[in-house]
Write a structure and sequence with these properties.
Distance between the termini: 70 Å
Strand content: under 5%
Helix content: 55-70%
Radius of gyration: 24 Å
Number of helices: 7
Length: 233
């Protein structure tokens, strides 16, 4: 007798024995691997709440345990559907681990679940506190490009490189400060979850984190741009 069709629509009940699975990786009744539940997220994949401060050692242990259990080598004699489920689960496991182990990617993912990360829809604006520095940076970059095009003297080039080195260090410091701010608001998010904060409070925290990520993205692009220009000289 052939195995029943395995689809995500049946993920709340085991496709093999119809027992309730609760979205688990394996059916507790018959042990069969299960499809990915609709709407499942990376936090749930590891059995974790949607918190932003994670024990990375614990996350790694969960990753290695699931990696062993879900590995396709364990399903070589299973049905074709079960082998495909193993591949699907293993692929999402790697994606989930890669995302959650990085604190910035973790925040971006959480906000993405709420539909709040839509980078590229509008041109990013320079953070107000950095307007003067950004203006000076753009001037220095233009001067460097002009000097390179006209094959300016070594002394002039060295002076421009020095200005850009200084600017790069300033923006790297700004990036570190933004990361610290993101960590503080992430901790506030976790406390809000623990205290049962209402939706309005959680939305406010997510909006703050979204603003921080936008500033971080802008500053990171500045740092990368300076690095590229310096590498070209």
């Amino acid at each position: 007798m052939s195995a029943p069709s395995i689809t995500a629509a049946t993920s709340v009940a085991c496709w093999s024995c119809s027992a309730a699975t609760g979205g688990a990786h394996f059916c507790s009744a018959c042990g069969k691997i299960q499809p990915l539940p609709r709407g499942a997220d990376y936090f749930a994949f590891f059995g974790l709440p949607r918190k932003l401060t994670l024990d990375l050692a614990d996350l790694e242990l969960r990753f290695h345990s699931l990696s062993w259990k879900l590995h396709p080598d364990n399903f070589v004699r299973a049905s074709g559907d079960e082998r495909q489920l193993s591949l699907d689960r293993s692929s999402q496991l790697n994606d989930a681990y890669r995302t959650l182990r990085d604190p910035v990617a973790r925040v971006e993912y959480l906000l993405g679940l709420a539909g709040m990360r839509r980078e590229g829809q509008k041109k990013q604006q320079a953070p107000p506190e950095l307007l003067e520095e950004v203006f000076e940076l753009n001037e220095s970059l233009d001067e460097l490009r002009d000097a390179r095009a006209s094959r300016g003297g070594a002394a002039a080039m060295a002076g421009l490189r020095g200005k850009l080195d200084l600017a790069q260090h300033k923006f790297e410091s700004s990036l570190a400060e933004v990361d610290q701010e993101l960590a503080r608001v992430s901790a506030e998010w976790d406390r809000a979850l623990d205290s049962g904060a209402d939706d309005a409070a959680k939305k406010n925290l997510m909006e703050r984190m979204n603003d921080i990520l936008n500033r971080r993205s802008y500053i990171r692009n500045l740092v990368n741009g300076v690095r590229q220009e310096l590498a070209a000289t």
